[in-house]
Amino acid sequence: MKKLCEKKRNNKGFSLVELIVVILIMAVIAVALAPQVMKWVGKSKESTDQNNIGQIESAVNAGVADYMAQNNTATVPEVTYKINGSITLTAGTDTGNKLTDCIKEAMNGKYPTVQQDGSKYFEVKITTTGSVTVSIQPTT
Q1: Contact status, residue 94 vs residue 60, Cβ threshold 8 Å
Q2: What is the rounded CA–CA span in Å between residue 118 and residue 121?
Q3: What torsion do the CA atoms of 43, 44, 47, 51 make, to the nearest 10 degrees?
Q4: Which residues contact 111 (CB under 8 A, 6 or more apart)?
Q5: Which residue, 68, 74, 61, 77, is CA-closest to 110?
Q6: Is the pLDDT of residue 5 over 60?
Q7: Among positive and negative, which fits the CA dihedral 43, 44, 47, 48?
Q8: What's this model's pTM, rounded to 2 decimal places?
Q9: Packing angle between helix 99-107 and helix 16-71, nearest 10 degrees?
C-alpha cells in the first residue's frame, strides 16, 4: 500500500520542455504538409471548373437544338457572351435563370447580363453552324 501512495505523489504530468517538443514536432509536420494541401485545393478547383464547363456545354447545346427546332433552321446567330465563376445569369426577361432559356434569348439578340463576383468567367461561343465552345477566362 505504501508503494501505491508513493507512485501517486510522484505523478506530476508532462514537463514544460516535453510540451514544447511536442508542439514543435506538430509545427514541423504542419509546415511540411502545407504545400501538398494547397495542391489538393488547386486540383479540386480545376476539377470543379471542368465539371462546370461540361454542364454549360450541355445546357448550351440543348438551347441551340431547341432554337433550331423552334425556328426550323440549320443555322443560328453567332453568339459570344460571358458567365461568371458561380454561373449567375440574369436574363432580360423573367426566365427563372434557366441557362437554356438565357441561351435562346442571347441568340434572339437579348443578351443576358452577368453579375461578376469571381476572379474568372466562362466564355461561351456559339458559331453559325451551332457548334459550342466554352472556355475559362480571367477577369480583366
Answers
A1: no
A2: 7
A3: -170
A4: 81, 92, 105
A5: 77
A6: no
A7: negative
A8: 0.59
A9: 50
Nearest residue to 103 (alpha-carbon basis) of 74, 73, 83: 83
Contact 134, 121 (CB under 8 A): no
pLDDT in tens, 63-96: 788 888 888 888 888 878 777 655 554 444 444 4
Would you kindly state where each structural domain of the chain is located, as residue ranges?
A: 15-138
The pLDDT of residue 29 is above 90: yes
Q: Report, as an integer, the average pLDDT of 48-73.
A: 82
Cell of 6: 508513493
Cα separation, 134 vs 43, in Å, equals 19
29-51 average pLDDT score: 88
Which grid cell sits at 119?
A: 476572379
Higher pLDDT, 62 or 4: 62
Angle at 45 between CA 43 and CA 47, to 5 degrees: 70
